[in-house]
Amino acid sequence: MKVEREEKNNRGAFYVEKDGHWVAEMAYGMSGDQMIIYHTEVSNELQGQHVGMQLVRAGVEYARANHIKIVPLCPFAKAIIDKVEEFQDVLA
């Protein structure tokens, strides 16, 4: 599944689109050099396909590429980052 990113005015999201609608998203806000992840949601039709993990991975890769840190306020994103050791280098 292709994960896209959209950002405007220090708010953004990583998302998956299907038929012109977002079917999964991980929303964040930027504060200086920190990405504050505050919400992750995956539609029922994509449950069990590891789409949430793909969203978090995209956020981690973006953070690394742009030398920013992640503050995972979203319980799902925090659980994934805490579980996957290779993601922990981007934690604020």
UniProtKB/TrEMBL annotation:
Residues 6-92 form the N-acetyltransferase domain. InterPro entries: Acyl_CoA_acyltransferase, Gcn5-rel_NAT, GNAT_YJDJ. This is N-acetyltransferase domain-containing protein.
